[in-house]
Amino acid sequence: MALRTAGSVLVVFLWSVTVVLGQNGWSVTYTKKSICAFKGLTVELSCSYTYPSGRVTTTFWFTKKDAKGNPVSLSDDPDYKGRVKYLRDETNGHTLTITSLREKDSTTYKFRFITDQTGGKYTGDPGVTLSVTALQVKVTPTWWATSKTLTCSTTCTLTGKPTYIWYKNGQHLDESTSPQYKDPVSSNYVDSYSCGVKGHEDLHSPAVCVQGQDCIRVTYTKRRICVLKGSTVDISCTYVGYYSTTSTFWFRSDKSTPEDLTRDPGYTGRVKYTGTYRGPFTLRITDLREEDSAEYRFTFKTYNFEWGHSFPGTTLSVTGNTTLYDTTVNHIELQEKINEPSC
């Protein structure tokens, strides 16, 4: 398992053997043969290459070919627009970074380089297979039928020994190296369960009902939001409570106890709640400050129930940095530069 600190690349669980293919001095060595990564995160694919003579003029990664059979660089592929970065080092190494991973990014990636010599083109086969996965809770009946078994599953195998985290009605329930929850659960129609992996708690599975299709749960519209300092942001969720609520509010997860943001002096005059039962219920924060960067969670109370405080919410990043982009209209008229947040 490889993991970097916050703000850098997050690569999840990897399994591999080094692959070296080549002929007559041409070769590509892939660091990993297969990679399993979580949806929404960032992954790195790397390789090194050799060639007999000349100078390398072009290097790129690809998954597709055009109508003429020529490989299409990921940087020119609309499906990867703004999500890929190439990094070449001085020792013939090359790294592909893909951000905001999507399940449809699951495919084989190949590296190609071109030299200034006649016929100096080479593609490294078979490439690197990337599998993008999301967590899901599977509910199966036990043999005695009065209880059910919960399994935290993925579409590709997580190697190492990941620690699974279980939540019941938004509250931390248990941790285990087994993907199955340790005890069968009763078929209480109001209870919902979710799972996560330690170190990536914000990537938990959707909450599932043990009995039927409806149960108590909170679902966030977005898990991460990046905005500019001084702007306004809407953070929203939907929730199901079944009983009349006595209170509904948003809070910062870094507080020792949940505190309604409308009563927090640091947000005076800058916070507004909108929405109704089953939502979306929205937190609006205006005149954003960099210190507003935090994880925001929603909770509600009834006379006999309170949604737990452990369930991950929406992470907000407020920045004063921008990335400038040039765009054109019909490739003739140059538009103004657009400032976009860089988080």
UniProtKB/TrEMBL annotation:
Pfam family name, one: Ig_CD22
Keywords attached to this entry: Signal
Boundaries of every Ig-like domain copy: 126-197, 206-319
Signal peptide: 1-22
Keyword Isomerase appears in the UniProt entry: no
SMART domains assigned to the protein according to its UniProt record, in alphabetical order: IG, IGv
Gene3D superfamilies on file: Immunoglobulins (2.60.40.10)
Protein name as annotated: Ig-like domain-containing protein
Organism: Salmo trutta (Brown trout)
